[in-house]
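ok, trying the design again with the full structure, not the truncated one.
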């Protein structure tokens, strides 16, 4: 009924800072693991994180097209996260039928 397995998921994140991009990507790990099957997740433990792609996008802004130029940066990361998952397989649970 309870099983433990390891898998690797790829997640992407974007943000105004490097930390925000990583946080956005890591918040998607649970959704990516849940998409792999019909299991009830008990625990997800990241084992290893590797960066596949990290990009910085810079745009130059100006007030009224001429004044006060400034450069804005946005970040995007793509991560491969190896996770150890403990889950309950609901297909193995036997339910008894009762009428009310």
């Amino acid at each position: 009924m309870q099983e433990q397995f390891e898998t690797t998921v790829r997640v992407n994140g974007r943000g105004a800072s490097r930390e925000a991009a990583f946080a956005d990507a890591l918040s998607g790990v649970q959704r990516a693991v849940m998409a792999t099957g019909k299991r009830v997740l008990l625990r997800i433990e990241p084992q290893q994180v590797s960066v596949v792609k990290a990009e910085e996008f810079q745009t130059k802004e100006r007030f009224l097209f001429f004044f006060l130029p400034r450069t804005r940066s946005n970040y995007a990361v793509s991560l491969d996260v190896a996770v150890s998952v403990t889950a309950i397989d609901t297909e193995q649970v036997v339910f008894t039928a009762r009428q009310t």
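Keeping the full-length input from now on. The radius of gyration is 21 Å.
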